[in-house]
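assembly run, all chains below
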Amino acid sequence: MEDTGHYLQRMRARAPLVQNITNNVAMNMMANVQIAAGASPAMADAAEEVVEFTALADALTVNIGTADSLKAMSMRLAGAAMNGHGRPWVFDPVGVGATQFRNDLCRDLLALCPTVVRGNASEILTLAGRGKGARGVDAVDSVASAEAAARELAGRTGHIVVATGPVDYVTDGTRALWVANGDPMMAKITVSGCSLNGVIAAFLVEQPPLEATAAALAYYGLAGERAAAVCAGPGTFQPAFLDALYALTPEDVTQGARIEAA
Amino acid sequence: MEDTGHYLQRMRARAPLVQNITNNVAMNMMANVQIAAGASPAMADAAEEVVEFTALADALTVNIGTADSLKAMSMRLAGAAMNGHGRPWVFDPVGVGATQFRNDLCRDLLALCPTVVRGNASEILTLAGRGKGARGVDAVDSVASAEAAARELAGRTGHIVVATGPVDYVTDGTRALWVANGDPMMAKITVSGCSLNGVIAAFLVEQPPLEATAAALAYYGLAGERAAAVCAGPGTFQPAFLDALYALTPEDVTQGARIEAA
Amino acid sequence: MEDTGHYLQRMRARAPLVQNITNNVAMNMMANVQIAAGASPAMADAAEEVVEFTALADALTVNIGTADSLKAMSMRLAGAAMNGHGRPWVFDPVGVGATQFRNDLCRDLLALCPTVVRGNASEILTLAGRGKGARGVDAVDSVASAEAAARELAGRTGHIVVATGPVDYVTDGTRALWVANGDPMMAKITVSGCSLNGVIAAFLVEQPPLEATAAALAYYGLAGERAAAVCAGPGTFQPAFLDALYALTPEDVTQGARIEAA
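ok done. output:
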C-alpha cells in the first residue's frame, strides 16, 4: 500500500464530518479523539433526527455499548441511510454474545452492510458464529484465534472485518493485514476501542477501505505508543494520547507504522 | 461596566446551584467546569422530576445537542418553570438548522424567553432566520457576520444574545459588547461552548445580565489563555483549563478581561 | 480487621466484572476508576437486557443521579436479580429528598435490600427519615450528625450503610468504622462519590462486607491524598487520581489506611 501517512494527510485535508451513534460512556472521549485527529464529530443520535442528519455526514459510526430499543432504532435507520447515500459507516458489536438483545441488534446491523465491522477477538468470533461466550465486554480470546473467523465473515458479507488486540487483524475476506502499533496502556482506559471507530470512519471517506482502515489503526496505535512513553499511569495517559493524536504528522505515521501483509 | 472581577467574586460568594439539561457529551466536563468556577451543578434532566427540581435551582441551562422527544419535553418544562420562578436560564441552540427536529425545538425554546441565547455565529444567524445552513454542529460563519442578526434577534425577543467565536459578541438589542479573551485551543476540545453555558448561568444569578454574561465570557476565555500557555496539546489543555478556572482570582479577571463596547 | 491491603490484593486477583447502572455524568470516569483499580466494568443499563446481563456480573452498582422511569425500571430489575444470584450490589441515593420521583425510587431500591447503601450525610439522614432537606445533590449536614441515622438505618434494614465526607462512617447497625483517608480536592471534581461505588462493589465480591467497604474507602481516599499532593488544581487532580489508583500496592494501602472502630 501507499505511504501510511498519506491516508492521514488526506483525512485532515478533508476534515470529514463524522456522525456517531455511540454509547454514553464513550461520547466525550470519542469526540475529543476525532477533533484531535482532525475530523469533525457530531453525536446526533436521536431517532427523531438521525436519518435527516445523515445527509450532512461524510461517515457514521454505530456502537451498541449502552443501546436500548430507541437507540437501536436510530442505529438501524442511520446505517440504512448511509448505505443510501453511498457513504461509509463503522459498526462496533460491543459485548455481542452477552445478551439476546445485543445478538438481535447485531444480526440486524450486520445485515445492513456496514463498511467496516470492528470488534475485539471474542466479538468477531461470536459474530461469525464461533464464539465460546464473552465475559461482559472484554475479550477472552486472542486475535490469532479470530483470524479465520474474521476472514470468513468478511468473505461472506463483503464487509471489512477488524479484530483489534495487541496486533490488529484487518481483512476484506481476500486480502489481510496485520497492524502491530499500540501499547498495553490503551487497554487500561475505557472506550479506547470505541473512540478508534471514529478515526477509522474519518479515514474511510473517499479512501480505499482496507488500506484506510489499516492506516487508521497504525496512526491510532502510534499515538498510544507515544503517550505511553510519557505518561505516569492510565490517568495521565489519556491527555497524552489526545496530544499525540493531534501532534503526529503524516511523516511520523509513515515512519512509525508497522503494517504487514498477513 | 464595573470591574470584571467583581462579577466572579459575587458568583463565588453565592455558589449558585445550576441545573443543567444538556447533551450527554457535555455532562461530565460541564459539571467539572462549574465546580472549578465555584458553582454547584446538578444534572437533573428527566421529565419525571425536572419541574420539581427547578424549585431548588438558582439558574438553568438548556442545550439541545443530543435531545430526543423526552429530553425536549424536559427542556420546555424546565424553561417555563424558571420563568415562573423569575430565575435566569441560558439556551444553547446546538446545530439548529441541521434538522427539522432541532428547528422545531429551538422555535419553542426561543418563545419561552430564555434570559440568554448563546450559540456560534452560524447558529445565531439561523435562529434569526438568516442562516445559509450549518455544517453539523460547527460554525461556518464569522462572528462579525452574525452581529446584525444577533442585535436584531435580541431586540425582537428581549433576550441577551451571544455569538461566540475568536471574539465574542454580546448584545441586549440596544447595547453590545465585544469580549476578546480566549485561545484557538478551546476549539480543539469538545463541549467547550456547552460548558461555558453553565458559567454564564452561574454569573447571571442576581447580576445584571448583559454585564454578567460579558464577565463570564472574559473569565472563561482568560482561563483558556492560561491553559493554552502551559499545555502540550488538546489533551493536556483540558486539565489545565479546569485548573485555571479554579485558580483565577477576581483581580486576575479584572486585569485580564478584554471587554469593549461594540 | 485484617491488613487493609489484603482486600485490595484479593479484589485485583479476582478482577471482578462490575455492572453499573449509573448516571450519565459518571459513566466514563467510573469505568476508568474501576479499570485503574483492577476491576472490569460494564455499563449495560437498558431495561431490555439488564436482567440477563446480571448473570455475567460479579457485582452491581445502582446510582439514581440522572434516572428517568426507564432507567429506574432497570435499577429495580437488576437489584432484584442480583439478590437472586446472591451477589452484592451498592445503592447510591443521589439527591434523595430533592424530588418525589427520587424519593419513590429510593424507597423501592432500599426495600430491594442492597448490600451497601452509600451516600453523603444529607442523603443518609433523608433515607432514614430524619432529613431537613437537601440542596440539590450536595450535602449540607456533617457526617457526625448522620451517624445515629446510619446506624439505625443499617440495624433496621440489615444493609451496610456508609455516610461519606471528610471522615467516612461505615456501619452494619452493630459495629461501625471510621475511615479518615481522603483529601478536600476530591470534592472539587464531579462524580468522585459515584465512582467510589464501583470500587466498593468490586471489593465486596467474596469478602466480608463491612471490612471490604472500609478497605475500599481507605484505598480510594489514599489515592486522593496521593493525587492531591502532586496536582495543580482539580483538572490535573483527575488524571493523577487515576494514576494513584493504578499504582497503589496492597502494602501502600496497609500502611496508609486510617481505619478506626467507631
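Chain C has one domain: 4-261.

The longest strand of chain C covers residues 17-21.

not gonna interpret more than that til we talk
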